[in-house]
Amino acid sequence: MSYLGTTQTLFVNEVSNEGAYLDGHDLGEVFLPSHEIKHELEAGDSISVFIFLDNANLPTATTKKPHAQVGEYALLRVKEINSIGAFLDWGLEKDVLAPFNEQKPRMQEGHSYLVRLYLDNASSRICASSNFNRFLSKDEPQYTALQEVNLIVAGKTDIGYKVLIEEAHFGVVFYNMVFKNLFVGQKLKGFIQKVREDGKIDVILEKPGMDKVSELGEKIMEKLKNEGGILAIGDKSDPELIKKVFSTSKANYKKAIGGLFKQGLIDIEAKSIRLKEH
Questions:
Q1: Which residues does the chain have with pLDDT short of 70?
Q2: Residue 212: what pLDDT?
Q3: How do 85-89 and 112-119 pair as beta strands?
Q4: Residue 240 and residue 178: Cα distance in Å, rounded?
Q5: Collapsed DSSP state (helix, strand, coil) of residue 36
């Protein structure tokens, strides 16, 4: 089967001056315009294409890669708003529609929003939605403490960053637990800190304990070698400087350099550290 809004490998039925006609299986014949063809095609060849509906609602193929496919999330910019909704730039000539009833909050022209692409059952149109609740799991979260999870930054709140966990549940990373720059639409790894009795989920970006310290220690040693064996960040350095350079807390940094000191690898001073051989 072939699906709208996804990248597929299709076989060529026929080639003309206008373009190629591809076997779209249950979608019927799918047209690939000639300006999309980068190398010579013949009947029987296969080609990877993204399938969408053109302005006449006919299945059309492109060799371009959109910023997201159906079922995926992306940060997209609003190019235009009219009577039916907002049209967002998703990397193709034809913009993708976010209907008004799928906008949360109401979108403004020129602004960018995290959206999920979906296929509207009634019109078969590929659409965008920022109303994520309807895509989330209805099941109670079953995560365990310190379980590694995939995150998408969905927005900012008064207490922290709102994140999508495995695209199934919402969680929060509190501001005082963030030691790196985050932006809406960013995809990254994190860890479950706690699932509360009310179902709310606390998330952290750094795994606590010696695993994290050991990983950080490797980064510190690499940085020291790149800096000629001396680094102007010591035991008493500003936490903001540590956060900027190593994307971690001062507590983790002190544990890491303490471990390196015990191994005889470095000397520690108030505002600097240095490799032993120096």
A1: 1, 209-212, 277-278
A2: 67
A3: unpaired
A4: 12
A5: helix
